[in-house]
Design goal:
The protein is of the alpha/beta class. It has 12 helices and 12 strands. Strands 3-2-1-4-5-6-10 form a 7-stranded parallel β-sheet, sandwiched between helices. It binds nicotinamide-adenine-dinucleotide (NAD) and 2'deoxy-thymidine-5'-diphospho-alpha-D-glucose (DAU). Nicotinamide-adenine-dinucleotide is lined by residues 7-8, 10-14, 33-37, 39-40, 60-62, 80-84, 99, 103, 122, 124, 152, 175, 177-178, 184. 2'deoxy-thymidine-5'-diphospho-alpha-D-glucose binds at residues 84-86, 124-126, 176-177, 187-188, 191, 203-205, 210, 212, 247, 271, 278.
Length: 339
């Protein structure tokens, strides 16, 4: 029986990946290490409670003792643990540098010490920086432009260095914007859906022209699993949905799916240094056999339906710390907003 340590497995993509592994590999054991920051949520794993193949530990990937205890005997580590929201990194980058760079180093040391056979570092298309034309390939220059993406680039460069220097079997995935169940409602898609359900304004940064490539989270999980099992150590793999959409198009599609008026859109002060476009060339992972299963309309419809049907999950998150963050991020912006 293979054991996989999934760090950050109580977050959005990590918890979807835990579900994916237990469905696809009935003979695998999954150990989750998660600090349960504001973004970590045991409700994301609630339906798996009682499954003897799943073990949960609350802890920090920066804590060497905890990491070493859990890494021993694992076949692989898949690292999702990170501070993940660009807007929060602009407010306060410290935790991003700690978890997204130093935390990766602690994991890599454990992989090296205990001979773990595979280490997958979940990275992001943001490491390429803003891409006005064409699509990024894996050997393009990394040019991150905000504290989050710079930290993610730092983490994956450490991983790459451990491969080159010590032969640590590292694999890197760089995905575009995931959508689907269990995404914390600070990210644009769940923020817009949950605000629209409650007839609250949708804050659109700048003129809403920034382009993102949205991918359904299950497609990303399938790609990660493929890279884990069939990827070449030392290599990075782009994972995109092929669904490039700007923020106005996104907001319009969400409002239409919910039958809400377009005048809920508010144009607010832009994100500083806002990357205007990401775009990935995914031919490398396609050569391994991966194809996306969900196009943008399917992915968005499934996501909207999940938030409509699972209000128990997100309503309680929109309190306390969330409201403080919301006020700091949007209070002044919305007060000065244009329709
Ligand atoms: P998330 O914020 O929903 O989840 C992050 C998880 O990591 C949370 O459960 C949190 O509690 C945990 N965590 C944070 N700091 C930790 C620490 N020091 N030790 C242990 N656990 C810690 O993030 P997500 O959107 O699921 O992203 C997961 C990973 O995928 C991240 O590495 C992110 O950079 C990357 N990524 C995300 C996207 C996206 O669209 N969401 C796209 C590409 C890559
Ligand atoms: O591209 C992959 C990245 O996608 C991941 O690495 C990050 O972890 C993830 O958070 C996401 O980053 P983005 O900055 O692209 O996602 P976000 O949902 O914050 O914003 C998506 C787009 O929507 C972006 O152009 C900014 C815009 N936006 C966002 C918010 C939160 C708005 O216009 N208004 C908003 O309120």
């Amino acid at each position: 029986m293979r054991t996989i340590l999934v760090t950050g497995g109580a977050g959005f993509i990590g918890s979807n990946y835990v579900h994916y592994v237990l469905e696809q590999h009935p003979d695998y054991r999954v150990v989750v290490l998660d600090k349960l920051t504001y973004a970590g949520n045991l409700d994301n794993l609630r339906d798996l409670a009682g499954d003897p193949r799943l073990e949960f530990h609350q802890g920090d990937i920066c804590d060497q003792t905890t990491v070493e205890r859990l890494a021993q005997g694992c076949w692989a580590i898949v690292n999702f643990a990170a501070e993940s929201h660009v807007d929060r990194s602009l407010m306060d980058p410290g935790d991003f540098i700690r978890t997204d760079i130093y935390g990766v180093y602690v994991l890599l040391q454990a992989v090296r010490k205990f001979g773990v056979e595979r280490f997958v570092q979940i990275s992001t298309d943001e490491v390429y920086g803003s891409v006005p034309h064409g699509s990024s390939r894996e050997d393009d220059r990394l040019a991150p432009r905000n504290p989050y993406s710079a930290s993610k680039a730092g983490g994956e460069l450490q991983a790459r260095a451990f491969y080159e220097s010590y032969g640590v079997p590292v694999l890197i995935t760089r995905s575009s914007n995931n959508i689907g169940p269990y995404q914390y409602p600070e990210k644009v898609v769940p923020l817009f859906i949950t605000n629209a359900i409650d007839d609250q304004p949708l804050p659109i940064y700048g003129r809403g022209t920034a382009v993102r490539d949205y991918i359904y989270v299950k497609d990303h999980c399938a790609a990660i699993d493929l890279v884990l099992h069939q990827g070449t150590p030392g290599e990075a793999y782009n994972v995109g949905g092929g669904n490039e959409v700007n923020t106005v198009q996104l907001a319009t599609a969400i409002l239409d799916l919910l039958g809400k008026p377009h005048d809920l859109m508010r144009f607010v002060e832009d994100r500083p240094g806002h990357d205007q476009r990401y775009s990935l060339d995914c031919s490398k992972i396609q050569a391994l056999g991966w194809r996306r299963q969900y196009d943008f309309p399917q992915a968005l419809e499934l996501t909207v339906r999940w938030y409509v049907e699972n209000q128990w999950w997100w309503r309680k998150l929109k309190s306390g710390e969330y409201l403080r963050y919301y006020q700091e991020q949007y209070g002044r912006r919305l007060a000065a907003a244009q329709r």
